[in-house]
Amino acid sequence: MGTLPAADLYRQIEQANQRGERVVVATVARTRGSTPQQRGAKMLFFASGEAAGTVGGGCVEAEVWAEAREALRSGQSALHHFSLTAEEASEEGMVCGGTMDIFLDVWKPT
Amino acid sequence: MKDSTDHTRSISSSLQRLFEDGALAIVVTLIEAPRNVGAKMIIEENGSHHGSFADATLDKAVIRQAPALLATKEETRTFYGREFAPELTEFSEAQFLFELIQPEQRVVICGAGHVGASLARFAALLGYRATLIDDRKEFVRREDFRETNIELVLAESWTEAVRATIGNGRGVAIAIVTRGHSEDEQCLRATVTSSIPDYVGLIGSKRRTRIVLERLRESGISSEQLAKVHAPIGLDIGAVTPEEVALAILAEIVSVRRGGSGGSLSHR
How far apart (Å, rounded) are the C-alpha atoms in residues A81 and B31? Predict the structure, then answer.
């Protein structure tokens, strides 16, 4: 999944909200160490289970995905801390390690 | 106190409007705090703002801090409350995400030959919105370009097509890669005599592009208007095939946008 143009991102949020659905927007707020994505990277999670954009490929995405599903359910926006040690990364065959603070923001229909 | 989520609807439509207008703004989100997480404020370039963190003093401090991000050209920064509003002790450990809203990044391509078509596809892959212009219908057929972020324009007049596509020029990179020198010249003239985009590039040999620039200068276009033109277009990566030339062009567009040197990282 590639980078999502910012204008598209807000268009997709608006459209989902108009369908009466919640959307979770994940944004990389802080990074430390060798992380796969830089600050500001964004990923959208829809109620349908679909997603768009990326916050860092295989390294953290599965965990972010799980938290996003929980946020969709609970409706609670929160800052989450994700870390990936070098060992975990090498086991997965990926070159990343470090920590990322990712904000999961729930945009709700009104 | 109003819950933060009450604002999200109006915030997302405001953000969309800002993109449509090609405006500069900062959106600030409260991302860590005992309450009101997710609350947002938008501060526009002209100082107008909306949204609130339900604390007038905090709102004022955020409005004061926003121009700092505009000045640094950074797109995203996270601040603790204590970093910009030390007097507001109850927010000292709160975290605020500041994000720059800027005009959509667009690549306008004059000429849909092999180089132009490849450039449109590469640009779309990078997340830029691409506009591909040609005066030959069979070169801008939708069935040949499935990417939704590639816009196809059949030009009756190059000048009018270029002007209409560039708009106010903000966030726009234009690559002039038509099949002929006369068409290139029309496109370049239309570009430098309207709102000059962030990047302008002209394809051709050093000798040929110099002749085109000289002709424009003789027709009364100032050196200042021509100073922004990258000619010949592209970074020197030894490109041979049309696809490689397209890559060299896009690499130059990215390096101008991000302020890169264009050299090898291993030589830094």
Answer: 12
